[in-house]
Design goal:
Layout: H1 2-7, H2 14-24, H3 31-38, H4 43-46, E1 71-77, E2 94-99, E3 104-108
Antiparallel strand pairs: 1-2, 2-3
Length: about 120
């Protein structure tokens, strides 16, 4: 099951996979069941490092080949004033701090993702 999870972007430790199996509360959980359970895990505790070490250097490739599941650490609309980030007067430009549980990187939302607010 660990290999199937990795194919779908879930880079979890053995303990993380076991935690998902416990959360599913089934003898043979499906990949979908395991993925749903993994959504509730903290990657800082159960994630396996999979981001490149030089992800934060300017010369790194700007695109990662995935799927890769990362955890959102922070989210900020950098086009709005800090005192009123929910303002609809500025065009939306989200700066997103992401982690695989070991490394932190930043990204920008270049087209709207309704799930992020």
């Amino acid at each position: 099951m660990e290999a199937k999870l990795k194919e779908n972007g879930w880079f979890l430790s053995t303990e993380g996979v076991a935690e998902c199996e416990r959360a599913c509360n089934k003898e043979k959980p499906s990949l979908q069941d395991m993925s749903k359970a993994a959504l509730n895990l903290d990657l800082k505790q159960y994630g396996v490092k999979h981001l490149p070490n030089d992800i934060n250097k300017a010369k790194v490739v700007t695109q990662l080949i995935g799927p890769l599941v990362l955890q959102v650490q922070k989210l900020r609309n950098v086009s709005a004033p800090k005192s009123n980030e929910d303002s609809n007067h500025s065009p939306r430009l989200l700066k997103i701090q992401l982690t695989d549980g070991h490394l932190i990187c930043h990204g920008l939302e270049n087209s709207p993702i309704p799930e992020l607010r």
